[in-house]
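User: I'm curious whether this sequence folds into something compact or stays loose and floppy. Could you predict its structure so I can see for myself?
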Amino acid sequence: MDLSDLRISTDRLTIRHFAPEDFDGFHAYHRLPEVYLYLYANPLDEDGARAKFAKASDPRLDADGDVAVFAVERRQDGALVGEVLLKLASKAARQAEAGYIFNPAFSGKGYATEAMRAVLDLGFFQLNFHRIFARLDPLNAGSVGVVERLGMRREAHLIQNDLFNGQWGDEFIYALLQHEWQARPKVA
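Assistant: Here's the prediction. I'll summarize afterward.
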């Protein structure tokens, strides 16, 4: 499924495919060590950012493992504040992983929660996923706050399940089922 024409507007944000003019903003946050602190990867140099940007510029969900990444733009001024994604974990079981990366220059304003609410709506209402989950480092308090504000349930705490730069890291898994998202109280 080609999602390159997707465009979602929220109160303050537009969620859309990445355009060529987004590269500088994309690279601005992908090169920051603090952005990659909880991603178990190194910040991207320009070549790495260009390769990742090329993949992000073609959002598709056709086969297990496909990732659809979308730019998150602030409506008031067109600033690229970050990105959200859906990864097709299992087409047969209608499951997807949700994720997000935001430029720390725009943190603390609720943009990640607002954008992820729209992504969950997309995933459950338009793409008909049965279950959407998020994986995150327990030390990333900001990310834990986002998924908990969205009403996601912590399903697992994996202990020392990943090794990066000689350090073991834990992982939380949060999830929601389609019927739980549909039954939640609507946000005003």
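Summary: The first helix runs from residue 23 to 30. Helices lie at 23-30, 33-36, 46-56, 111-126, 141-149, 178-183.
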